[in-house]
Amino acid sequence: MFYLHHTPVWLRWLFPPGLLWQGAAPQGNEVFLTFDDGPHAEATPFVLDQLSAANMKGSFFCIGKNVVAYPHLFSQIIESGHTVANHTMHHVNGKLTDAVSYADNVAAADAHIHSNYFRPPYGQITSRQASAIKSRFSDMQIVMWSVLSGDFDTSKTGAQCFEKTIRHIRPGSIIVFHDSGKAMPRLAEALPRTLHWLRQNGLQSCALPKAKGPLPE
Ligand SMILES: [Zn+2]
Questions:
Q1: Where are the alpha helices (DSSP H) in 55-157?
Q2: More confident residue, 1 or 23
Q3: Domain spanning 9-16+29-205: which CATH class is it, in words?
Q4: Which residues lie at CB < 5 A from ion ligand 1?
Q5: Cα of 84 to ligand 1 centre, how many Å?
Q6: pLDDT of residue 194
Q7: Domain ranges of the chain
Q8: Is the pLDDT assigned to residue 68 strictly greater than 60?
Q9: Cα–Cα distance between 133 and 60 in angstroms, integer?
């Protein structure tokens, strides 16, 4: 499996304009932990416990059908002060979906999630799909990432994911983990170690601001 743990700036030019790859760090120590694909019966409570113990906040890019399946976990994410965000209703692949169906799937998830943040599953999104979303949700910020933990990669250990992740973290980094059953074997080690490392290095994970409108770059 080929993927880059860090998204180089040149690669970002291959994507539609207006995507958020990096957050703002006005205090110089903010980073943005994000968790894709939940809520999940085991992984989401684990992440919530870890964030609470570390006194850090994150953003959860939820799949609509999982929100329907686990409404209490979805509520718990919000009540704990984290940000919820849209990751489509059925985790659709932008490569295999036309722009109208794609935006329909985002809209279906919006009915359950109500967020002005969206992340495309697999990082796959075309300009037509981004435009179709923006035409229905003018305030929707499409959020990509600067650091991939690789916790979805079953050929890696949790320790390897942790080492790769911390090598690339800078103030403002948007970091991807997954609260999914598939990622759990690696997440269970990589997340607590990453939180500990952030604290040791004076960095604080913040939730993406819930106020509407795009973040300043
Ligand atoms: Zn996903």
A1: 64-69, 71-79, 99-113, 127-136
A2: 23
A3: alpha beta
A4: 36-37, 121
A5: 14
A6: 98
A7: 9-16+29-205
A8: yes
A9: 19
